[in-house]
């Protein structure tokens, strides 16, 4: 199998990422490192790694081409039966590729398999290697589930795809720089089943200040729009390929409107109204589902957002309200951790 490792200014992390791939047991791997003209010396690190292990190949861009073009270049050069895209600042936990491969080989209809990722900052964390069971969804069922929640349930380093499926559906869409991963997973589900390895740790996602996908409060609005763009392309765009796409898109829009209200409600409950674009969340929700402006949740948000900014900014909202909001997010996380959706 092939693991593509795109890199831009992550030379300090590159040995860990590549090492985590080469140390995978039970599988034959080759690694393609693509350095996108990093000014931090990443290219020299890539050359050194390629020079010490014949399973590693380094491609060094002379000029920066951007992350989408770099991803696609690597994916199209994959020659193994399976392919993964691993950012140079992330890593694979021990045994992850063998666990994913076992599912793919048992279920030929599955084009993509994922599992639970762990986040980390510095040292690689301890991981769970035991598998509880597998889940396999028909592709259309998985898409419908994403429409009902409006959420992308996959991070990225935990994904392994069948190379034939990857090449058949094509690469990342350069028009979707903020939601290319999500659109790729949806597009995969349109032509194949989706599998999940349950119980074990399947990816390691590094959180750091310079991460391209570092989530900030201000980034929620961009993320919401990106998810909308991904749904729109797959379900009702010129290349739509899912039966009943219009109805699914309506469901997705309503779910995204509710998600926007959830962000606004959380900001109010935790005194972040001065740091998050509450008005932007509300405008997004009303544009996608006008009826939400008549809901109790909408009225509560607008009432609390217009309250004395000093009390809200200092987190003086009733403690019970904050605890209830925390519980909602905790239960959602637990469900995702257990089921993957």
Helix and strand run: EHEHEHEHEEHEHHEHHHHHH
Secondary-structure-based class equals: alpha/beta
Strand content: 15-25%
Low-pLDDT stretches: 212-218, 311-316
Overall pLDDT score? 92
Map the helices and strands:
Elements: E1 2-7, H1 14-22, E2 30-35, H2 42-52, E3 56-60, H3 67-76, E4 82-85, H4 96-106, E5 110-120, E6 133-137, H5 139-149, E7 160-162, H6 163-169, H7 180-189, E8 193-206, H8 220-235, H9 245-269, H10 278-288, H11 296-305, H12 309-313, H13 319-339
Parallel strand pairs: 1-2, 1-4, 2-3, 5-8
Antiparallel strand pairs: 4-7, 5-7, 6-8
Written description of the protein model:
With 341 residues, the chain is of the alpha/beta class. The protein is built from 13 helices and eight strands. It has helices spanning 14-22, 42-52, 67-76, 96-106, 139-149, 163-169, 180-189, 220-235, 245-269, 278-288, 296-305, 309-313, 319-339; strands at residues 2-7, 30-35, 56-60, 82-85, 110-120, 133-137, 160-162, 193-206. The chain has an eight-stranded mixed beta sheet, with helices on both faces. β2, α2 and β3 (56-60) form a beta-alpha-beta unit. α8 packs antiparallel against α9. Residues 212-218 and 311-316 have low confidence and may be disordered.
Features:
single chain; 341 residues; alpha/beta; eight-stranded mixed beta sheet; 46% helix
Compact overview of the structure:
The chain is an alpha/beta fold and 341 residues long. It has helices spanning 14-22, 42-52, 67-76, 96-106, 139-149, 163-169, 180-189, 220-235, 245-269, 278-288, 296-305, 309-313, 319-339, and strands spanning 2-7, 30-35, 56-60, 82-85, 110-120, 133-137, 160-162, 193-206.
């Amino acid at each position: 199998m092939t693991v593509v490792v795109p890199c831009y200014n992550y030379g300090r992390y590159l040995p860990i990422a590549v090492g985590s791939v080469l140390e995978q047991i039970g599988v034959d791997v080759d690694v393609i490192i693509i350095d996108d003209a990093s000014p931090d010396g990443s290219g020299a690190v890539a050359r050194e790694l390629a020079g010490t292990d014949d399973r590693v190949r380094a491609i060094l861009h002379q000029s920066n081409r951007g992350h989408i073009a770099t991803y696609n270049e690597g994916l199209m050069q994959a020659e193994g039966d399976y392919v993964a895209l691993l950012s140079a600042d992330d890593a694979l936990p021990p045994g992850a590729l063998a666990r994913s491969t076992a599912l793919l080989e048992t279920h030929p209809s599955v084009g993509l398999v994922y599992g639970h990722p762990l986040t980390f900052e510095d040292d690689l964390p301890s991981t769970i290697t035991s598998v509880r069971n597998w889940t396999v969804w028909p592709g259309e069922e998985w898409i419908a589930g994403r429409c009902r929640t409006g959420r992308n349930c996959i991070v990225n380093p935990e994904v392994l795809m069948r190379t034939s499926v990857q090449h058949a559906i094509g690469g990342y869409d350069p028009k979707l720089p903020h939601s290319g991963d999500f659109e790729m997973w949806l597009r995969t589900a349109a032509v194949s089943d989706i599998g999940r390895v349950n119980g074990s740790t399947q990816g390691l996602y590094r959180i750091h200040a310079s991460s391209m996908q570092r989530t900030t409060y201000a980034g929620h609005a961009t993320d919401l729009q990106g998810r909308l763009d991904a749904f729109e392309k797959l379900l009702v765009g010129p290349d739509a390929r899912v039966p009943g796409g219009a109805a699914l898109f309506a469901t997705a829009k309503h779910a995204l409107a509710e998600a926007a209200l959830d962000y606004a409600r959380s900001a109010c409950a935790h005194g972040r109204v001065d740091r998050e674009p509450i008005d932007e969340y509300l405008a997004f929700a009303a544009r996608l589902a006008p009826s939400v402006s008549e809901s109790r949740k909408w009225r509560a948000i607008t009432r609390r957002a217009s309250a004395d900014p000093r009390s809200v900014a200092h987190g003086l909202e009733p403690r019970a309200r904050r605890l209830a909001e925390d519980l909602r997010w905790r239960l959602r996380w637990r469900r995702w951790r257990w089921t993957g959706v």
